[in-house]
Design a protein that fits this description.
The protein has five helices and no strands. By secondary structure, it is mainly alpha-helical. It is globular and about 45 Å long. InterPro entries: DinB/YfiT-like (IPR034660), MST-like (IPR007061).
Amino acid sequence: MPLSAVEPRLDSPDPKAQFVAYLDYYRAAVERKLDGLTGAELRTSRLPSGWTPLELLIHLVHMERRWFVWGFLGEQVPDPWGDHAGGIPDGPWQVPDDVTRDELVAALHAGGERTRKILTGHDLTARGAVGGRFDDDPPTLSWICFHVLQEYARHAGHLDVARELHDGATGE
């Protein structure tokens, strides 16, 4: 998958295609923002909140899976809150010492492939399954798409700030 710094512009009436394109765009943007950082830099915070670029990356991997696979499909997933210390939803983000940037980037894109299959195989008005993440009143696939898209956009912006503080790099 090419890493494009160009925001997708689809004049398609298909909102699924637009969601897929924008989610791919933000995954690629996150990957670009991590390029050139050493292992130590990926595990070092420059922010008062203390999160590191690698912790943000693992959060995005787990977040997308929580919403689409565990949430919408209702599939049981191992360690759904594995991006949080102690597996507690409100715990700080954490990355095991033996997990690398390349492994997490591969997982990010593999999750994107799974999301693409979910989106192409389901109607946006379909509600998520009960029994996975949701006990009752699950949201629609459309709502989940908007939520995940805003998570990516917000966290890509956070990563912009962290990278600028690190080495002055700005941009897409």
